[in-house]
Every structure is written in structure tokens, then in C-alpha cells.
Amino acid sequence: MSHKGNVYVIDDDPTMRDSLDFLLGAANFNVTLFDAAADFLDAHSGLRFGCVVSDVRMPDINGMDLLRRLKATASPLPVIIMTGHGDISLAVEAMKLGAFDFVEKPFEDERLIGMIEAALQQSPNRTKSDDVSAEIASRIATLSQRERQVMDGLVAGLSNKLIAREHNISPRTIEVYRANVMTKMQAHNLSELIRLALRAGILND
């Protein structure tokens, strides 16, 4: 059976590297492991198209630095960033820097595998579609003023509590508005919402 595609795992934690090697290998990906972003960057120019899965917190060159360097070289490789719980602001910054997606640890195996499969289905030379941007704008137009405020808070990396405090309403009410925002924007999770906001120009690259 042929491999589904190449995956390049970057993590300084040997236990996590071994775990991902086993998981992704069993899912029939061709996995290459790196214990430092510097090693990956040294090998980058000779690598075939594939998905990069990188931890965000690493010594020397961290996940954010890695994204900046890949963006500067116009690398076609999609990058999935792994973050710890509570690193939403970092995840937002990662999406602004061009990350394909982010996943919070601990994550469900199938969620990560699904992200990688989606990333590998992308063309290395993606082009932006005006039709898609117009569709996103039409979804944003359906949001109420309060829902738009909540959406702006979410894509800025604010927690429900901080958004509630900023607008002087209860966190429970924010949860209701948040659910409405996700439904109207047709976003299944926060990373999708951030990508939509970037495409609509709400977040600056």
C-alpha cells in the first residue's frame, strides 16, 4: 500500500516524537522526525512536499520562529502547530504567520490525522478565490453587532471571560453568542474561524 503523503514532525520531546511516529506511521504516512527546528530548516530545501507538524514551544528556534522563516522563503509546505492548553493567543499568531491549523495538546488522534490529510490535499501553489472571500463576507454580514464583537474577541485570542468583562456581560451569555458565531460563520472550531477572519481581512497578515 502506498503512503498517504509525507509528514515532518518537529518536537524536542523524544516521547512525543516517538508517539507521533507510531501514530502517523500506523495511519500510513511517511514520517520523518526532527528534534529541532534548525535541523528541519537545514534539510528543508531537499524535502518533498508534505505536512509539517511542529511543537510551538522549543528551545532556540521555536514554532513561531519556524513559521516566520518558512514564510520568508515562501515555502509551500503546510504547517500544523501543536500548542499547550491556554496557548490560544500563540495559536492566533501562528495562523497570522500562515499556519494551516493548530491543535491543542492533548489531542484526539483522529483530529490530528484529519488535519494532516486536509493539509496534504492542498495544492503547493494555492491561489485566493474572490468568490470564497465574498462568501465569507456574506456570512459576516449575518452577525449581529454583539456577535461581531464576540467574534473579534475570539480571533484576537481572548477567553470567554475576558470578552465578557470587556463588554460587561456574563460568560454564559458569551458562550451563547460564541455558538451563534460558529454556526453563522460555518466554522467547526476556532482555527477555522481564524482562517475565515484572515481571508476576510479582519486579521492582518
TrEMBL record:
Gene designation: fixJ
Name of the featured protein: DNA-binding response regulator
Gene3D superfamilies: 3.40.50.2300, Winged helix-like DNA-binding domain superfamily/Winged helix DNA-binding domain (1.10.10.10)
Keyword Phosphoprotein: yes
BP-aspect Gene Ontology terms: phosphorelay signal transduction system; regulation of DNA-templated transcription
InterPro entries per record: CheY-like_superfamily, Sig_transdc_resp-reg_C-effctor, Sig_transdc_resp-reg_receiver, Tscrpt_reg_LuxR_C, WH-like_DNA-bd_sf
Upper lineage: Bacteria, Pseudomonadati, Pseudomonadota, Alphaproteobacteria, Hyphomicrobiales
Keywords: DNA-binding, Phosphoprotein, Transcription, Transcription regulation, Two-component regulatory system
Residues modified to 4-aspartylphosphate: D55
